[in-house]
Amino acid sequence: MTPSKTPWLRRDPRIADADTPKAASSGLDRREFLTRMAASGLVLAISASGIGCVADMAASGSFEPSVFLRIGEDGIVTVIVHRSEMGQGVRTGLAMAMADELEADWSMVRIEQAIGDAKYGDQNTDGSTSIRNGGWMTFRQAGAAARAMLQQAAADEWKVPVGEVQGTNGEVVHAASNLRASYGSLVKRASKLAVPKDAPLKKPEQYRYIGKTVASLDLQSMVTGTAKYAQDLSMPGMRIAVIARPPVYGAKVKSVDSAAAKQVKGVERVIEVPSAPVPSGMMPLGGVAIVATSTWAAIEARKKLVIEWTESPNDSHDSAAYRTELEGSVRAAGNVVRDLGDAASAVAGATRKVTAEYYVPHLAHVPMEPPAAMANFANSACEVWACTQDPQTAQGVVAGMVGIDKSKVTVNVTFLGGAFGRKSKPDFIAEAAFLSKEMKTPVKVVWTREDDIQNGFPHTISMQRLEAGLDAKGKIVGMVHRIASPPIGSTFGPDQEYHSEGELGLGVLDMPFAIPNVRVEVCKAPPHSRIGWYRSVSNIPHAFALGCFMDELAQAAGKDPVQFLIESLGGDRVIDMTATGAKKPVENYGAKWEDHPNDTARHRRVLEMVAKESGWGTALPAGEGRGVAVHRSFLTYVAAVVRVKVASDGTISVPRVDIAMDCGYAAHPDRVRSQCEGAVIMSLSNAMLSELTFARGRVVQSNLNDYRVLRMAGAPKDIRVHLVDAVGPIGGVGEPGVPPVAPAFANAVFAARRTRVRSLPAERA
Amino acid sequence: MLPAASVTPTMCSKYGSIACFSDPPYLLMRLTVNGSSREYTGDPNQPLLWFLRDELGMTGTKFGCGVSACGACTVHVDGAPVTSCVTTMGTLEGRTVLTIEGLDANGQHAVQRAWTEQNVPQCGYCQSGQIMAAAALLKAKPQPTEQDIDNAMTGIICRCGTYPRIREAIRRAAGLPTTAAER
What average pLDDT does chain A have? Predict the structure, then answer.
């Protein structure tokens, strides 16, 4: 498939450079194999869409049949992982794929984190792509090629037909003669062989690691506190900086009195950081930096800065007033982006008509590790170490910030203490680079939690209005869906006030229900802050509105919600996505519709599975209720049943959640399960507690006491994950668990107390 | 001047590590960290978190909020769990501090073993705090109830949502039957 996601989902189009190899963006499944000779011996290069591959024993002292794989004479198998580890388990997952085809001994497998480099292809760890198109096939192919070479090397040494030897669990075996050779002992000979073009891949029943539960290779470091995150970085001579950033988007430093701050011992300099013009893309917001010898000194000194900020057009932005503005926006006609049949007439002529409006506020990512980066600018080059989701974009942004060529920027990737989309924007890395250049020393920029909440890239805010008509049999005959939500594109370009086609592909234009007349309109929603992508992006508001509205329609039709959803799917079918009435081609998460169709049978299957497993329809105590929702995102189908309990004082708790996922194939089932568990909890945080608001243009919340997320006591004690047993093209896993849980929660609240939750969070503080 | 993060603890006391903390009325005091005696010279208001991270280089204790709202920085002081981001150095004369680095460097503490068996961490960032809180809980209450677990653990936020596995791991470490979900 081609990762043709629109630029707003990927990176700042203004810093996308023209010299990125075409191959890097042309799809990871297209393989071409090149062989070339070099002075140091036979050097083999596999170019899998920009993925160079070199077997060069003489130069490296080890066997490197791929840029992702190195095997030493000691038998250590080093897997070079090019995607960032942020809790989704990609390091272990990709190592499993490689080690399986290689038939490596798992105890010999080590992981090395790749620096940012176009030779690895796309490294952007977003869009739930890291397995499905970031490495599943590439890593397996590299492992298979290496095993074939090791087998050939052994066969050559033993002078037996290669068909008689077998690489298995770290050694090559010739069963007939009981000859055995460890991979390490074959490295020298294997590295002189050509990398085979089409080494056969295993069949699923031959998998040794894939599809099994494998302990994370990073587990030990995480339970002993030795795993290094960007906040933990240090190097000789390093200074630590915190920055006072503009409280309102678009404001800049007008004047600063730093006299008191400079009196704090440990403070070395106070440096103004330039503010990028609005819209500022991924560039720093600017402000005033305190550079000190300790974090504490920097934080304390920042409190003593007296800064006057310039006026900003966003000074009057207020969330309450803005909500009213969005309500007005969706109550009038917008720009039509999908027009199938005649929705207005169908609704007008329907037996029953249902109208509802849904509100989802801005959200903050709040990864437990606030952003941090260390930079060392020296000799016209810059090396950075950062918790980044996207090291190649970081290269470009840093280069722009300090005025050097991208090739002079080295980006090292640490563990990411959570990310959820925040850390794909490298503004904090550019800050560190700028300050290192100014200081002529290494500098680590530390974001505090207040910085993270008040100067981040909030998830968009959304108001949606849905109107539908039912016929006498309770079938939906028409639907009009209006959306007002400031687009992510507004962070990167001017005059963007309407939801984009890319955002509409996240759960609106790909909506699966068989409704003969559908109109979708986008309504005006001017931005007042940076807008960023957040785990599952606009699927959050879209799934919430549609998932709740379908429940309201089921109620109006007098039908059981699960049955109503299944009936509304209109039978098992692959939806013709070219015949939906959409004005432009509908996005499919970078995949082709023919490779990953919109299949109502898979919607139905996860619904049936979650209904069965959750005990849907069985009696519950008074004050309790179940709700259901289904949603496809990132090529994966998920249905959730949430059970809530409403106490006599109105307090809502969630004793149990069942979630069923069909992700095509679960390459690492335990990690798929933990991603689903985490998605349930994050989505319930969104639904129950979290809200980022603005007053006088400034974020109201400041820390985790007032920006609320679920804690242990409030989290469901019983989360059950049900995976569809399938062997098909792999879909995403990190994000798709999030969207259906919030509407299932809201529908459960209705089932329990007979009043609707149409505005999130349910427990507005 | 030596940058704080790159000096050894011995050099810290010799050079005062951070100039601002070497002047009166700042104090000179002793405390025990992971079994070793340590000297501290400096601002009594500096939180333990930054002494551990910047001066001792013990970065296993994490910075998450700075206001005792997230618990990522949880350590033990005289055996009790505290948030080191708001525990000031001035309160620690003669006290004994235990951090994740001192719990068991090989990860063989019962809580760490249970964490490993249950595959608890996702991103891992909050897990030092989670593990230290759980270790303190089990020391105080070897057979905790569900309510005990809630009370002891609800101060430590996990944004990845590992709570169900944390609960299971605590039960496992306590030798209690593990409950829920099919996995």
Answer: 92
User: For the whole model, what pTM was predicted?
Assistant: 0.92
Separation in Å, CA A661 to CA A333, A438, A636, A668, A672: 36, 50, 7, 13, 9
| C-alpha triplet A6, A11, A15: angle, nearest 5° | 120
Q: Tell me if A713 and B122 make a contact (CB, 8 A cut-off).
A: no
* B131 vs A213, residue with greater confidence: B131
Contacts of A264 in chain B (CB under 8 A): 20
CA end-to-end span of chain B = 54
pLDDT at site A131: 85
Query: Is B156 close to A229, i.e. CB distance below 8 A?
Result: no
Place of tokens 């309102």: A248
Once rounded to an integer, what is the mean pLDDT over residues A235-263? 98
Contacts of A217 in chain B (CB under 8 A): none
At A9 the pLDDT is 32
Does the pLDDT value for residue A57 go beyond 50?
Answer: no
pLDDT tens for residues A86-96? 999 999 999 99
- Is B122 part of the contact surface with chain A (CB cutoff 8 Å)? yes
- Residue B94 to chain A, least CA–CA distance (Å): 23
For A137-282, where are the E strands, in sequence order? 165-168, 171-174, 179-182, 239-244, 253-257, 267-273
Size of interface A-B (CB pairs under 8 A): 241
Cβ of A674: how many Cβ atoms within 10 Å? 28
C-alpha span between A663 and A655 (Å, rounded): 26
User: Closest Cα partner for B28 from B10, B46, B37, B16?
Assistant: B16
What pLDDT, on the 0 to 100 scale, is given for residue A727? 84
- Nearest chain B alpha carbon to A214: B119
3-state secondary structure of A277: coil
Test the A interface: residue of B67, B83, B101, B123 with most A CBs within 10 Å: B123
Residue type at A535 in one-letter notation? R
User: Do residue B62 and residue A231 have CB atoms under 8 angstroms apart?
Assistant: yes
pLDDT in tens, A174-218: 999 999 999 999 999 999 999 998 999 999 999 999 999 888 899
Q: Are the C-beta atoms of residues A443 and A243 closer than 8 Å to each other?
A: no
Which residue in A74, A244, A354, A417 sits closest to B129, CA to CA? A417
Distance CA B86, CA B67 (A): 6
Q: Would you call A407 exposed, middle or buried from its count of C-beta atoms within 10 A (0-12, 13-18, 19+)? A: exposed
Q: State both tokens at A468.
A: 């539908």
Are A370 and B18 an interchain contact pair (Cβ–Cβ within 8 Å)? no
What residues of chain B lie within 8 A of the CB of A714, using their CB?
Answer: 154
Of B72, B104, B149, the CB nearest to A368: B72
**ipTM score:** 0.92
Asked whether the predicted pLDDT for residue A31 surpasses 80, the reply is: no
Q: How far is B81 from chain A (nearest CA, A)?
A: 17
Nearest by CB to residue A295, choosing from B54, B61, B124, is: B54
Q: What CA–CA distances, in Å, run from A439 to A236, A320, A753, B1?
A: 14, 43, 61, 15
What are A642's strand-pairing partners?
A627, A657
